[in-house]
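Sequence design from tokenized structure. All designs in this work follow the same two-part layout: the structure record, then the generated sequence. An example of the structure record is given first.
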């Protein structure tokens, strides 16, 4: 039950986050994965439950460098890797120097192949991102691997004799991604058709080198995941496992990702910490509890308290605020989180705009309607330039009605000018209570 004390605590969370940990109320980590909704599809569930409850195992997840950063969908995998490590198991983080040169088949069209130099650069970038989420100390220290190490020396003859003979074309054609492409106007090249074999080789090599017996990935990769489990069974005569996590979608069911043009990147240069924070803050009530389960390390008891708040007092948006705090702190650190929360509060009238650091303020304003103006430009012109009003007469009317403010101060007459007096030589223009725009001085 949500008591008065717990209500006060969850509604006024201090800007601190506890170190990530598994929830001790679950008998084993498999049960926690199920409760968090992280198992969309898997190999034998009873065998997996026993496996994860026993001695430490080695497991892996692969990330292809088909872009210069990982995104929100990959964050599910990174946090799943971390959860299993916290439970005592040994992670392998694989960045695909070879599979990145090919790319897994998209549903509708052939990928544009990136240069070897670009892929190599992205391998380094992604490796650095993956390393942030794993511990490389202790008995279950993580290890990073690159599949180019074992694929590059493999000749075409060896590939066909040692690996290709274990694959049946009929089975390969039934994979969802392949079937979708075969039924499209684009068709599919032999290059992308072979991708599932390359991922199968990865699992086989990691099984041989590190006794790796589990692979995790998105459920849309299930055909590639089972390529490895099937290959190991054929070649080594043993059963290994795979877990496919659910895809993260919009409320209308569309997937987040670079292919859809709406990727939420974990690189601060591609998606700013402020934009990242606002993304999580805007989570719908219907989705926020599931997001807390997947993207945070809050315990079951804590999440149930937020679930009660969503039901009884949704206007507090306590669950969304905690979600945004936790995920931004996990990805960008507590200092960046403090800065973006301060900027968000100040922009919406709950803090001091002049106290913000220039970089965070400029980044926040870039996410709003904005315009470049000359110092001394009129507020009337700035209102039109930013699109807050559609005409000069509407701008003057808004000012006369007392509905316009500049840098937190009400504009009293239409002769007022822009000074850019906030940190970084910017200004914040407001019409009404919630309609904001940024002004950047040339």
């Amino acid at each position: 039950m949500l008591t008065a004390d717990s209500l006060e605590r969850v509604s006024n969370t201090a800007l601190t986050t506890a170190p990530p940990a598994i929830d001790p109320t679950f008998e084993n980590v498999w049960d926690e994965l199920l409760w968090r909704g992280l198992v969309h599809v898997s190999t034998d569930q009873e065998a997996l439950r026993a496996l994860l409850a026993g001695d430490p195992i080695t497991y892996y997840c692969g990330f292809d460098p088909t872009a210069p950063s990982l995104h929100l969908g990959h964050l599910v995998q990174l946090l799943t890797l971390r959860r299993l490590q916290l439970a005592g198991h040994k992670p392998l983080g694989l960045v695909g120097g070879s599979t990145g040169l090919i790319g897994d088949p998209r549903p509708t069209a052939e990928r544009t192949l990136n240069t070897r130099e670009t892929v190599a650069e992205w391998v380094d970038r992604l490796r650095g991102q993956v390393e942030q989420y794993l511990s490389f100390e202790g008995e279950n220290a993580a290890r990073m691997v690159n599949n180019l190490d074992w694929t590059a020396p493999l000749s075409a003859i060896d590939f066909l004799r040692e690996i290709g003979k274990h694959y049946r074309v009929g089975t390969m054609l039934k994979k969802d991604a392949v079937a979708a492409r075969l039924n499209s106007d684009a068709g599919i090249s032999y290059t992308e058709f072979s991708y599932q074999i390359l991922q199968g080789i990865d699992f086989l090599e990691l099984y041989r080198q590190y006794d790796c017996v589990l692979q995790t990935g998105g459920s849309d990769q299930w055909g590639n995941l089972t390529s490895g489990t099937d290959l190991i069974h054929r070649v080594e005569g043993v059963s290994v496992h795979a877990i496919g996590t659910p895809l993260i979608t919009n409320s209308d069911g569309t997937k987040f990702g670079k292919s859809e043009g709406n990727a939420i990147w974990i690189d601060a240069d591609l998606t700013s910490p402020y934009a990242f924070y606002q993304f999580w803050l805007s989570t719908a009530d219907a989705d926020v509890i599931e997001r807390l389960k997947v993207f945070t390390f809050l315990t079951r008891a804590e999440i149930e308290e937020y679930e009660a708040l969503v039901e009884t007092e949704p206007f507090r948006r306590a669950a969304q605020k905690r979600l945004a705090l936790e995920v931004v702190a996990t990805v960008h650190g507590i200092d960046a989180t403090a800065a973006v929360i301060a900027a968000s509060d100040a922009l919406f009238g709950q803090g001091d705009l002049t106290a913000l650091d220039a970089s965070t303020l400029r980044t926040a304003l870039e996410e709003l309607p904005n315009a470049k103006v000359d110092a001394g430009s009129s507020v009337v012109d700035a209102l039109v330039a930013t699109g807050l009003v559609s005409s000069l007469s509407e701008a003057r009317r808004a000012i006369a009605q007392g509905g316009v403010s500049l840098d937190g101060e009400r504009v009293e007459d239409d002769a007022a000018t822009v000074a850019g007096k906030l940190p970084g030589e910017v200004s914040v223009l407001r019409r009404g209570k919630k309609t904001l725009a940024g002004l950047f001085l040339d």
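The two ends are 56 Å apart (CA to CA). We note this feature because it recurs in several other targets discussed in the main text.
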